[in-house]
Each structure stands twice: as C-alpha cells, then as structure tokens.
Records
---
Amino acid sequence: MNKHFLSIAELTKDEIYEIFDLTKELKAKQKKGESHHLLKGKTLAMVFAKPSARTRISFESGMFQLGGHALYLSPNDIGLGTREAVKDVARVLSRYNDGIMARLFGHNDIIELAEYSSVPVINGLTDLLHPCQIMADTFTILEHRKTLDNLKVAFIGDGNNVANSWINFASRVPMTLALGVPDGFDPNPDILKNARQTGISSILVLHDPREAVKDADVVYTDVWASMGQEAEATKRKQLFKPFQVNDALMKHARPDTFFMHCLPAHRNEEVTDSVIESPNSIVFDEAENRMHVQKAIMVKLMA
C-alpha cells in the first residue's frame, strides 16, 4: 500500500481485497477473544476538526484491541490551520506518534497533513471523501453477498463525500453504481470523470430515485445536510423530500435488496423508521465493520 490512506482511488483492486482479507481475519480473532496485538506499544493521534461518535469510538477501540493507544485531539486541542499551521501540526505529531487519523473539513488539509507527516496519515473524513466508510460498507456487502461480482448499488440523496468515495470504489472494483440525486446536487465532476475514464464500472447519475433503485442489490442513503451545511437544512428538506428512502421507494427495488446508511440517521427524513428497522437493513453491521476495516488499514500502514 501507499504510505497513507487518503482515498480509495489511490489503492489497487488487489490492495482493496488484501484489506478485506485482513479485516476478516482480525474480526474473527476479536469475536473469538484471541489476542491480536499487532500494534503493541504504538500510538495513533486522532485529530478532529469535525466531531463524530463512530469515528472516535471505532478508531480508539480498534487501537486498544490491537495493543496500541489512541489520543483524541479535539478542535480546541489543535485548531488545525487556524491556531497552528497544518504542516507544523503534521511534523510535531509525527515526532510523538506512529500514525495520524484526521477528520477534517477541507480535503486540502488532509493532503498537506500527509505531505509533511513522516508517519502514515488516515483520512477519517473530509468534505470531499469518506474512504473508511465505503471500505466498511463494501466489506459488509461482501459478508452478506459472499461476492462483489455483478453488484449494483443505488446511492440516493446528496452527491456528497460518501457518494464521491463510492465513485472512487467503482473506479477500482467493477460494479454498477446508480446515483439518484436531486438536480444540482451531483457528485464531484472531476471524481466522476476520472472514474468513468477507467471504464471499470457503469456509473449513472440519475434524477429519479425510482429509476436508480431498480434491480439494486443495495439501496444506500445519507443525511441530506452534512456537518457544516446546517444553514441549508430547511431548504434541503424540501428539495430532497422526493428522495426519501421509504417503503414506496423500496418497492421499486427487489424484495431481497439490502438497505444501508452510514449513520447517524435522521429518521423519517432521508429514511423512514420502517426501512431502517426492516429485516433487509444492515446498517448496524456496517457500523460495526468500521472498526474492523480500520483496524486492518492501521495494521497495513503502521505494523
């Protein structure tokens, strides 16, 4: 693998499956209670410009299970790019720690952090990408389907960082990706263009959610207004209402179609209670697998 984990587009297909193989192994050891202290004595600095429950808990618990230690650094502790220059933070944290995980707003900040860090940097989320999430999602699909062959994923909602990372994944592993987004909320055009140029997957941008979910193996959604977009929330609720994942929409998919959501969910906004609580919902499996996949990524980079 590369020295850092910033984007799925920087991985090869083989490297993706190597991470999945290691994830399966580490998850099995954890379930059996077997020791797997592959990062014993190592530390991970966790830089949070954006707060998150799942990201902090999954990385911190994962490092503990691997025999290492994670340090939570809040926006007040760091002030990345405001209180202190990104390149200075990178070089200081590199002197203290064996790895850095950062959950930030601007994607350029994670790039600069990696440029000046002498230890591996993991992208825990930026406004542009959310690679750890999609690695966890696809591992979860692999667990349930036993294969990623002939996979169709329908992503419904905003063309946000999660959608962008789905597109990056589709640039490495063959699949059909149908993005059902409101007009004007398309994913990043450069990421879309680069992925389509690989010719690996069929990537569709549609403005009808019913068309997007047809024949899908997975229907996936995310919140309509991400962190930092709170001022747009009311307007977005009106624009995105036709894109709610509800029982009526799911009837346009197959009876065995899985439902996924990266969480936290705004219930009865982007998804109804009936869908998220349905037997086809695997949202809590994917939430758990964040920890297992991230453990594998940390071992690949830091062991």
---
Amino acid sequence: MSPLSLAQKKIIIILLALVVSPAIMGQVPSPEQMWQIIQEQQKAIELLKAKLEETESLASQNSDAVEITANAVEQVTIDINRGPDEFQRTSIGGYGELHYNNLSDDMLDDGDDSLDRTDYHRFVLYFGREFTENIRFFSEFELEHSLAGDGAPGEVELEQAWVEIDLNEAHTARAGLDILPIGIINPTHEPDTFYGVERNKVESEIIPATWWEAGIGMYGELAPGWNYDAVIHTGLSVPTIGSSTLRPRSGRTKVAQADDLGFASTGRIRYTGIPGLEISISGQYQSDITGTADNIDINATLLESHLIWQHHSGFGLRALYARWDYSDDPLLIPDSINAGTLDGWYLEPSYRFNLANSSWGDIGLFARYTQWDERNQIDGAHRFEEFKQMTTGVNWWPHDNVVFKFDVQWEDADGLVDRTLDGINLGLGYQF
C-alpha cells in the first residue's frame, strides 16, 4: 500500500474533526443533524477533491514547463558553445593597397614611358578553415588593378589554396596552390610589412614575387631557432622569343591550365633564434625553365639569401641577394651578352619610432639601394642590362595594420635600356 499524500492526510484530519468535535463538546446529534453533518462532510470532501485535482494539474503543468525550459536552456547552451567554435574554425582576412605614381622616363630615345597614374593595385581576401586541430585549409583570392575582364587592366587570381596536416609538433605537410618560400616579400607581402610604395625590383623581377605554384612539401623545425621548407612543385615557362626572353616574371603560369611544365623543387633554411633576427638561404632547381613543349631545354638554378634585423631600439636592416644561373644554350644564351646569369641585390636600413603622442602610431624612415638585371628590347636585340635605383621615404602606421607611404626614387642603368624612371610614389595599405 502506497503512503498517503499530504492532501489525503488533510482530508482525513478534517473528517475526524467534523465527527469528533460535537462529541467532545458533549452534544449527541439527532438523526436529522447527523444527516446534515454527513451532507456537509460530503460537500467538503468534493471541494477538497476538486482542489486536490487542481493542485495536481498545476503541479503537472509546472513540471512540464520546467522540463521544456530546461531543454531550451540546454539547447541554447549547446548552440552558444558550438557557435563560437564554428566561427573560430573559419577565418576571414585580407589586405589591399592604393598607389599613386608620378614618374618621369629619362630614356626618351625609345618613347616616353612616364607615369602619372592612380591605381588600386591589389584587393585581396583570405578564407581559411580549421577542420581539426591538425588539419586546416587556407586560400588567398585577389583582384588586381580594381577591374578585370575583356579590355580591363586587371585580373582575378587565386594565389593560394592549400591544405596542411600537422605530422607532429615539429613537422607539417602541405599540398595545393602555395607561395614559394623564397625571399622576404614573396612569403610576406602585405603592404604594412615593408617600406616603400612599390615592391622592390629585385624581389619582383629576379625572384619574382608574388610567385606561387602547385606542389607538395613539408616545413618545420630542425632545432630551436632553425626552420626548414622543402617543396616539389610546378615550374616556370619563360618566353624564348620577344622582349621578355628568359625573364622569370614572364614565366609565371599562375597554375592556370599550365601545360607542359618542367619539374621544379625549392628548399629553404632559416635561423630565427635571436629575437628580431632572421637569416635565410633558399635554393631552387628547374629541370626546364622554358617548359617542355618546345625544342629548347634549359635547366636553371635560383639561389637567394637575405637578412632581416629589427632591433628593439627601432633600427632595422634588410639585405637580400638573388641569382639565376641558366644552362648553356649558344643560340638562346650567347656568351657575348652574359645572358647565362641574372641577379640582383638591395640594402635597406630603416628606423621606426613612436610619435610623441602614442595614439598617432609609428613613423618609419628608410633608404634603399637596389641593383638588378632586367631584359630589354632595343631595335629588336635582346639586352641583359643592369639597373640601379635609390629610394628613400617614410611610412606612417596610425595602426599596426594600416600604413600610409611616401617615397622618392631615382633610377639609372648601364647601357641603352628601354626606360628609367625618376619621381615620387604615394600609397595606402592595410591588412586585417
């Protein structure tokens, strides 16, 4: 037999009180009074039963409401916990830069190539996804020169789209479309990370930044402060006729239905064991830098080394050297014009300091001397000329990721070249 509920106990107590109370008071009820008492008790019982049913109904409703509320709170908690996690696993970023160039061409014998131009040079978006703690995806999508399409000056490019997997704490494998680990500007080319409006000529012509290929490779740490990169990837397909003969920048296929490419591989060793210091050396081998569809077979090697030193006082220094060496081909690379090599270097001291009112950000002053080889076409002859450029200017960072730039450049060359440009450059850049 189940125990009596609290409501049932109350009913029994009330009934006992109705029966016993007249006896206690010494009054013996008559049959009529007894019948009246019974009727009143019955009414009281019915009333108490109704109250009991109402109470039980309310309790049941409250229990259901509590359960519904608890379920809703639990679902909201799950959504809250899952929402930020899903958002944090997907990343969006990008960078952009607006340029103004006012440059005069000093070599007017071959036409006037002076510039008075405003150009939204690059608008770039990053999209990334962390599938697990060890597997992630990253991409870089770019619009150059603000407008793309038939007859438009710009183009839409997919510069990066790779998946990487952490093999362990020290080593990671990566495959897809990726920036090659060569130079300073190529891996890190956001405008707020370097001085000057335009990218320096050594890294844009010799390396040539920005340079990406399809491939597979690994990177990681060999020892504290010592890092490595090793990549097997598609190669260049440089022209073998015309004004851009053997020009590395003109050989970038950008992995757009890139047919008949030769095998290539790139490796890099970096030392970053001292705060503010980076010393790096990179090497690349191209089995056929002209591609495999023609009868010309030229293998090539690229060596690059650089130093970055950013002292806590604000003083900075960048120095870089890069050199291509092509295999012999007497018809395409005659010794008389020293066409078998292509190199360049630059030296860039700088000083970055905080303004008196720190809310105004940082100011950086720099000077850069650059020397590089470039292909030029004068009267139909391919010339391999050496250019020299002196650039000095200022960067203002009102925020670490926003920069305004101004610089002045003076350019010269050994021999009769297509053009040399002197003048000023203005720029605005950002990343997020």
